[in-house]
Design a protein that fits this description.
Elements: E1 4-5, H1 6-13, E2 16-18, E3 24-25, E4 27-29, E5 39-42, H2 55-60, E6 65-69, E7 80-84, H3 87-102, E8 105-110, H4 115-126, E9 132-134, H5 144-150, E10 158-162, H6 170-178, E11 182-185, H7 193-196, H8 199-211, E12 218-222, H9 228-232, E13 238-244, E14 249-257, E15 260-267, E16 270-276, H10 281-296, H11 301-309, E17 319-323, E18 326-331, H12 337-348, E19 356-360, H13 370-383, E20 388-392, H14 397-405, E21 411-414, H15 417-427, E22 433-437, H16 445-453
Parallel strand pairs: 4-5, 5-6, 6-7, 8-10, 8-11, 9-10, 11-12, 12-13, 13-14, 18-22, 19-20, 19-22, 20-21
Antiparallel strand pairs: 1-3, 2-7, 14-15, 15-16, 17-18
Helix pairs in contact: 1-3, 3-5, 4-10, 6-8, 10-11, 12-13, 13-14, 15-16
């Protein structure tokens, strides 16, 4: 972060400030194990922890200040202190104030699928014109968003801030902290339907972000998504649409292989050739959204195409790994029915000499839709004419059972990642391709680990 007077941060946090002398700080942190001199440590409380317990260690590590609950502080001469009623609220207020004080261009990003990938691609493109910082990994919640904003450095001109949610009202909370100048909504799907109840409710929640971008701002929506027109009607900012084959910015003429996808990008009549070194037509759709945001902020189409050609995503997202001539496509970070079907479609489209195999785990947060969602994925796998579908875990068996019922003969379930890897070892040959996908709780990346180490 920019060097800032501690009393200014304290005013943002709406806290009681006590310190000796004029102190400037350069980082806000919540991990007591990583504190160093110049840091402000925020003592958060959770269901299973209370960071106030680690204040002695934090002070010993040289923290410049601590943000604590009123009445739970430390000796006056030990360290500068900001006291607030609630340290989480204090952190969020501090981030909101710092964002307004710093005044960078903030691009907020949400959606049911592809948030982190689109965030990565947007940051890569924006960096061709602006000094850009983006959310690390998927730190996209009520703690991660404030920390992302507070990480913006002196020279940073643009922040790309991913915003996730599980329950109604969470996006609005993040919007009120980040105060975005621009927004991207990747799509409205079935993720988190367990908590929101319907796709319409998810669409309303996702639409909160673009609806709160100010009138001078920019909103980019998915031209292929059925909820886009509804969301656009609630926006005061200028709205662009981007997608595959349609949109103000459209990707078309897609040609995929194991190295990525070549395609053309049409920017309202100006067409450039592009290449994305990441598999999957759905990833090209994400690239179109990112490209549109860059174009709306004055980045030339040729520069956008050049930026995409060197793109790398956060790990576990359509990451190709060659093992003994076998192409493993690691998309194991998370999953829902829409992203599962996109991954299956991507491997089915591969131009390879060998077999195409899907290794899938359970999908979480589907609630009453869990059986339907898993069966839907199994039917889609069969429709893609894959050579085999293997699943891991009891719930994921719904996928392999549905695939077999739909006509895919080589479809079976394994009780563990290790057992599945052992079977793959006996059947895979050089030239084959394997998709690994499931919700984070399924740990499908372990299949590759066991395969490599066996």
């Amino acid at each position: 972060m920019k060097s800032i007077a501690l009393h200014t941060l304290a005013s943002f946090a709406d806290g009681i400030f006590s310190a000796r002398g004029d102190i400037h700080v350069t980082r806000v942190i919540t991990d007591s194990r990583k504190v160093s001199p110049g840091d402000v440590f925020v003592a958060l409380k959770g269901d299973k922890f209370d960071a106030h317990d680690f204040l002695p260690q934090v002070i010993a590590a040289g923290a410049s200040a601590v943000l604590v609950e009123k009445g739970r502080g430390i000796a006056a001469d030990a360290c500068a202190m900001i006291e607030v009623d609630d340290t989480l609220v204090g952190l969020q207020n501090m981030a909101r104030g710092y964002r307004a004080w710093h005044q960078p261009l903030i691009i907020g990003l949400t959606g049911s699928n592809g948030k982190t990938s689109t965030k990565d691609l947007t940051a890569i493109i924006m960096a061709s014109k602006f000094r850009t910082r983006a959310t690390l990994g998927n730190l996209n919640n009520h703690i991660g968003v404030p920390l992302t904003l507070l990480s913006l450095d002196e020279e940073d001109e643009c922040g790309v801030v991913e915003m996730g949610m599980n329950h109604a009202g969470e996006i609005k909370q993040l919007v009120d902290i980040a105060l975005p100048d621009a927004a991207i909504v990747t799509n409205v799907g079935m993720a988190h339907i367990e908590h929101l109840g319907s796709r319409d409710a998810i669409g309303w929640e996702k639409g909160t972000l673009p609806a709160n971008v100010h009138g001078e701002g920019v909103v980019v929506l998915n031209a292929n998504d059925p909820y886009t027109d509804l969301i656009a009607r609630h926006c005061q900012a200028t709205v662009f649409r981007a997608g595959t084959n349609v949109g103000d910015v459209r990707a078309f003429d897609l040609r995929s292989n194991a190295e990525g996808t070549a395609f053309k990008l049409d920017f309202a009549g100006e067409v450039v050739q592009a290449f994305l070194p990441i598999m999957g037509d759905h990833m090209v759709g994400n690239a179109a959204l990112a490209a549109c945001m860059g174009w709306a902020h004055g980045i030339a189409p040729a520069d956008i195409a050049e930026a995409l050609s060197g793109a790398k995503l956060t790990g576990g997202r359509m990451e190709t790994k060659a093992v003994n001539g076998i192409h493993f496509i690691d998309d194991s970070y998370n999953a829902n029915p829409d992203s599962m079907k996109a991954g299956l479609t991507a491997i089915a489209a591969l131009q390879i000499s060998g077999r195409k195999v899907a290794v899938l785990g359970r999908m979480g947060e589907l609630g009453l839709h869990a059986v339907e969602g898993h069966c839907e994925v199994g039917k889609h796998a069969a429709a893609m004419s894959l050579d085999a579908v293997f699943t891991v875990g009891a719930e994921a068996a719904l996928i392999s059972d549905a695939a077999k019922a739909a006509g895919l003969s080589e479809s079976r379930n394994f009780t563990s990642q290790e057992a599945c890897a052992a079977h793959l070892k006996t059947i895979l040959q050089p030239g084959d391709a394997v998709l690994l996908k499931g919700s984070r709780s399924a740990g499908m990346e372990k299949v590759l680990t066991y395969f490599q180490n066996s």
